[in-house]
Amino acid sequence: MELRSIKWGSPLLSDIAQKITPSATLALSARAKEMAAQGHDVIDLTVGQPDFNTPAPIVEAAFRKVREGATGYTPTPGTTELREAVARVFGDDYGLKVSPENVIVSPGAKYSLTIAMQALLGPGDKVIIPAPYWVSYPKMAAMAGAESVILETTMEDNFRLTAESLEEALDDNVKMLVLNNPSNPTGVGYNRRDLEKIASVLSEYPRVWVLCDDIYRKLVYGSFKHLSFAEVEPDISSRCVFVDGVSKAYAMTGWRIGFTVGPKELVGAMTRLQGHSTSCPAAVSQAAALEALTGDQGCVQDMLNAFTSRREKMLQRFSTIEKIEVIPPDGAFYVFANVERIIGMKRPDGSVISDDTELGDYFLEDAHVAGVPGSAFGSPGHLRFSYAASESRIMEALDRIQVSLNKLD
Ligand SMILES: Cc1ncc(COP(=O)(O)O)c(C=O)c1O
To answer: What CATH fold (topology level) applies to the domain 15-53+299-406?
Structure first.
């Protein structure tokens, strides 16, 4: 017997299943991997995860705990020890009074964000998402039944949401603003003045929650310091939901641990959603995350040092490439390059590169370098290059891009 085949668009699939298209970032890195498997020397700069192994003490702690029997279900919102540790870290870092009941641990920050939206949003609600945005936000909003309102930001504004455009977009149906600080894909972070202005607009709209995706907050560069509304405008913090995790700062993407800090009632609602969907995050991963948060933080600094050096070299090399414009990222590990001046140029065969997706394809085919087209993040005319790769590979990638660019007319 054969399993039934279902055509795309068939009513056998739910409405929501048909709305959720595959992630463009994952699709591109899949193509880059496919080409590498065919024997091409592909430099994949689409990656959204650190290229380091999880630090050894974290791995050891996980093994130890499993040997001691941590192999069963844990409480739905996470183990008491881990919730206490998250409460302590957030309390210290954000200057907030946080108790373990304000914390829910989930299988990855992606799931934290998903159930935070499901707990707060429904049909008729609008979510403001500044573009460029991380690809999953609009899909998560759709899964919660809500409507996304995409607010474009510009390179002139450093890709930061302005108080003016926020004010214009706010109406009685808006129930949430998503603020990713520092941002994927731009790396841009919000300073005190930006946050104060946004907070002042939000103070007129008490119904609006702010979903603060702070997953890159520990990966920041130069004089930039991550700030949250809790430190800048405490009045707003009572309606902030803070999301963080161990994936990026501790090189633990595969362990799948994210945290949410918010009001107890919200944490309760998210716990019910999580209980009926995943039961709890994996016990072994929670043990590893506990070690990450409570152990020696030198590992974060080591990775940060490597990212800092790569970032500098990448920015320096980009500054020599005519037609590509970048702004220095404050955090994360991406450079969001403006490639508008290349679009419209002709390939060696005379055909025109008509958009960022075609340019991404051209670089992949010709230079064997993969970056993610800005249109995947709601901002066409750009390519996102990750610096979660070795310095030598990054430099070689940019050299190859230069060679491919020289072939365009
Ligand atoms: C902006 C942003 N938020 C959240 C996540 C999800 O992180 P996690 O691996 O913990 O689910 C990512 C991962 O790419 C991200 O870039």
So the answer is: Aspartate Aminotransferase, domain 1 (3.90.1150)
